[in-house]
Design goal:
Layout lengths: L3 E2 L14 H9 L3 H20 L7 H26 L7 H19 L1 H4 L6 H25 L5 H20 L9 H4 L11 H28 L3 E2 L2 H23 L5 H10 L17 H19 L1 H11 L1 H6 L4 H27 L10 H11 L11 H20 L4 H26 L1
Parallel strand pairs: 1-2
Helix pairs in contact: 2-17, 3-12, 3-15, 3-16, 3-17, 4-6, 4-7, 4-15, 4-16, 6-7, 6-15, 9-10, 12-13, 13-15, 16-17, 16-18, 17-18
Amino acid sequence: MSERTVSPTNTKPGETGGNLISRLLTATEIDTRMFGMIGALLLVWIVFNVLSGGLFLTPRNLWNLSVQAAAVSVMATGMVLVIVTRHIDLSVGSVVGFVGMIMATLQAEILPQFVGFDFWGTWIITLAVGVALGAVIGGLHGYIIAFLRVPAFIVTLGGYLVWRGAAWWVTSGRTVAPLDSTFQLMGGGPKGSIGALPSWIVGIVACLAIIWAIIDNRRQRHRYNFPQRPVWAEITIGSIGCAVTLGAVAVFNAYPWPRRIAEQFAEANNIAIPPEGLFISTGIAIPVLMAIGVAVVMNFLARRTRFGRYVFAMGGNPEAADLAGINTRWVTMKIFMLMGVLCAVSAAIASARLNAATNALGTLNELYVIAAAVIGGTSFAGGIGTIAGAMVGAVVMQSLQSGMVLIGIESPLQSIVIGAVLVLAVWLDTLYRGRAE
């Protein structure tokens, strides 16, 4: 069985010519919307870097940006599946607040009565309870939506009010702190990062995974006699992916521990402090690794499992999915259960970063999560969306927010900009679908 290579004869009419960029996109099969998002992200970074006098594109700010985007990124991967099936979840921010408050109360007030504070297994018990609670809440939403036929908008709007009120009711408005020291590592910070050498190892492993994915893709295409991308296109994709990965690791490693924390570490470990100061690389933050891990798992679920195929089939044509024998009600319920689990993971990251659970935890997260998914290319018409796009969308949203804070834009104007960007993203999606049709 011979291999076929992607060539002008395999492309659609109108795609054979064009400039270098269009030919590159055709050969590499890169989604034009993804390419546009990355271009928009780079433009946002450049503009804010100029306006901030070079403060935006620094290792410190980019490291903080990655940590701040982690919680939203985790939930955005689940929101893709929700929107793909033509539903919406307005309750995610309130679920984060409620589950975060339950986890904080458990580890700060309940478990210490039995095992003491900072017990080695506290973080495991807390996270397990949080994930289970998130699944139950999501399952409740999904059951009402799928089996009782109440629209998702109404159910999750009710959840938005119920769980926000429940978060206050758990502690009567008190802030719960401090949290377990091991649990706090999920929030990042100097101790919640893996350092220079492990970061390089992670980067190298990621590069090997990219190369393996490209080779496996070629093998699968050959197996089913699908057209192959040109070898130069495969090399280009792999090179860009590895360069971006290792470049990100280099940026994270260029951000040092704060001076005072580094000195305290040196004193505790009898390390001599040089005259120019002690440089300890922060490396990749644990919440960033958690977000990447969630994205990998969610991408596998969406692209390589029967569940993922059912989700996109339901979004593309719900009636046809029903006639094909797909249990759409059960799939819908599982989608919302998965969304609840991701809210619990996000709650762990957000509360660990604050070392506390407050009544404001998760406020406006629903806006940022939905915006991240839509900016990432997920269509409200259903059937279209990618996990990678949602991750990029989350970074775009956080970049806008962080950049505006950095240049001193007031909070009300920030909300105006974010809202305008969301409307613009939906409008662009409408135009894109109109052209595709």
